[in-house]
Amino acid sequence: MVVAGNRAASSLLAPFVLDIIYDETLFDIDLQIAANPASDYTTNFNQINANVNVVTWNAENIYPAQNMHLIIAEEVLSDQSCTILRNLTTALRPNGFILLEETAAQLDLKTALKETDLMLVGKQIDSSGKSYLLLKKRRKRIEPIVIQITGKDFSWLENAKAVLKKFDRESQEVLFVSQGEESLGLTGFMTCIRRETTNARYVFIQDSNAPKFDLSSQFYVEQLDKELTANVLKGDQWGSYRHLQLDLH
């Protein structure tokens, strides 16, 4: 869902986000654009391969739909109102995310997270000072089935096949972990795995100073609570890897 308010379609963040999602080639997208007043955004999104539905919505009210995977909105915290953020949260599915675009230099994020029971997954600030915040609902983390993998041999592969064949996709998840290797084809491997199940994630530890991976370690618990597919630790920073198409022209 995209909360457009009265913004012009050309100023929305959604097209950039959709480009990233479509690079993954695993998703069909139903896009809802919440505007007040309603505008014809469909003509602006007609080149995007998504089912677009524009709805009229006053942000002070609870959104009429639920179970959204991703909600994109702007100037929610800059207006210093938790009401809108709370209403967005009610429309979110348990494992969904909210992406906020904010221009205010000072944001009372701590209060907003406390009042909405959300957690901060990631934050980026661009060269203009604009902040991008990725939030998600707090929920009890599923204890994963951990599979240690390496590129030095493939003895782990048969075990991985057996686990993926038998595990309960509704109540369990698989976590692939690699530590102490400089490179590993995890991105391509996970792309193949996630064509079969979305309940699979990975941790790739490329930091020699990092503690040994342990599900009981608070250092790793805090990262796994974010429920991200890709968790790459390098240079004391968490990040991810993605395949990007090269522009050969």
UniProtKB/TrEMBL annotation:
Residues 153-246 form the Fatty acid synthase pseudo-KR domain. Pfam families: FAS_pseudo-KR. This is Fatty acid synthase.
